[in-house]
Amino acid sequence: MEPNDEEPNYDYVTKIMTEFQQHLIERANHHLGYPGNHDCSRYMALSPLLQFNLNNAGDAFKESDHGLHSKKFERGVLDWFAQLWEIERDEYWGYVTSGGTEGNLHGLLLGRELLPNGILYTSKESHYSIFQIAKMYRMDCEIIATLASGEMDCSDLRDKLLINKNRSAIINVIVGTSFKGALDDVDLVIQTVEDCGFSENRFYIHCDAAISGLIVPFLSQVPKKYTFKKPIGSLSISGHKFLGCPMPCGVQITRKRYIGTLSKSIEYIATLDTTISGSRNGHSPIFLWYVLNIKGHKGLQQDVEKCIKNARYLKYCLEEAGISSMLNEMSICVVFERPPDQDFIHHWQLQYFKNMAHVVVMPHVTVEMLDNFLHDFIWKRKIWYRCGKLQPPCLAEDIGVSNCVCLVHGKKKEPLYHINA
Ligand SMILES: *Cc1c(COP(=O)(O)O)cnc(C)c1O
């Protein structure tokens, strides 16, 4: 849509923008498969800030003569996250990034600079950015197998660590995998590296908590699993996913001593810039600060509880309808059979992989949306599978035998007399 620049035509622009807003409202109401929270109307209150061109270039803790920045808010946000992940104010360093990917770029860079001969270990269900980064940084990468839940298989990690005992280990621990919402077990990872004979100065752990970094800390029944009290080096989240900032952003937190007292090459970065990108969004720290204040711990906890409850509801309804599905215990990603209809996938904006599709039950997803989706899905399945004459795919390999209800695996759970009765 090329701008019409012959003469200013406000009516034309207004009309296009109104139509576009209508389109966005429709798309947001059918947005189920991608991990963004589209409950964003509250940010309208910040619209006066659009009058200012804000840039937080450089280190968040260094003031500059350039006055149009929001570093005061940025440091406030960082302090909040540092507290959440249990690292003292004078011991951490961090910044508001452009998203989870930049956090990974920074965390893995620190790992590589601290342990230049290190091998990157990451599970096969890692976000694609991790594999891109390994390539960009020319790091040797060992891909670790996963369990049916999607979490890293630490026995495979052990085997691969033992083969490469002479080289340091940089380990990417995923806090909420992109597809199944699985949590890598950080305690088991640490125990595994230590059992394999790696001392603390020979391994570095980066936690990619893009999706679940703001879910796990608010689950009251779970002990705090991810914390700087354990030997982890860095942790990053996305601000536009669960938290629902209207523009991509994220937070990266690491140990200050890694930034301040690193080897020559990091000093080189530190003098130039401690962050990955130069100019940085000056609005996003204010948006983060705003939503953390508006919601507070209590509001976030309510969001988490609501989403977990709604995800369980969706899983229950799929199960009742005889559809293969899975939901990890502390996850909002409901995985089920991939619909064989591209229009349906597009309509509900589902993500899919192999035989699986998923819905990410974010705070904007209401029970009504889920009911509409279920109704549509169950009705269309009758057409796709000709009322039972054709069979939906077997998902045993993707989500485990116990979650699969295909003709072969479904019967095991439900004895025949039960069906006939
Ligand atoms: C989304 C995601 C990322 C990337 O985050 P962006 O904010 O999109 O850059 C990284 N890791 C995981 C596990 C993710 O789900």
TrEMBL record:
Keyword hit for Metal-binding: no
Modified residues (N6-(pyridoxal phosphate)lysine): K241
Keyword Cell membrane: no
GO biological process: carboxylic acid metabolic process
Cofactor names: pyridoxal 5'-phosphate
Primary enzyme class: lyase
InterPro entries: Group_II_Decarboxylase, PyrdxlP-dep_de-COase, PyrdxlP-dep_Trfase, PyrdxlP-dep_Trfase_major, PyrdxlP-dep_Trfase_small, Pyridoxal-P_BS
Family statement drawn from the similarity comment of this UniProt entry: Belongs to the group II decarboxylase family.
Protein name per Swiss-Prot or TrEMBL: Glutamate decarboxylase
Native source organism of the sequence: Handroanthus impetiginosus
